[in-house]
Design goal:
mainly alpha; single chain; two-stranded antiparallel sheet; 67 residues
Length: 67
């Protein structure tokens, strides 16, 4: 059984826009993940996580309590 990885013939497809440019910018490095050695993936995810936490912090506590 094969799983769809979302990768096309030229590599992974870009994620669809989220509607928030800050989140889109944070997610952009994921498009190049396949070209990096696996040993570098954790750093990419750590930066992504940090940036998403920043964006959530910018939204304030009211936004966090709506989820």
């Amino acid at each position: 059984m094969q799983h769809d990885t979302g990768a096309g013939p030229d590599g992974p497809e870009a994620a669809p826009p989220t509607g928030d440019p800050r989140v889109d910018d944070a997610l952009a490095p994921l498009a190049g993940l396949a070209s990096l050695p696996v040993t570098e993936h954790p750093q990419v995810f750590e930066r992504l996580h940090g940036r998403l936490v920043e964006v959530l912090g910018e939204l304030g506590p009211a936004a966090a309590s709506q989820s």
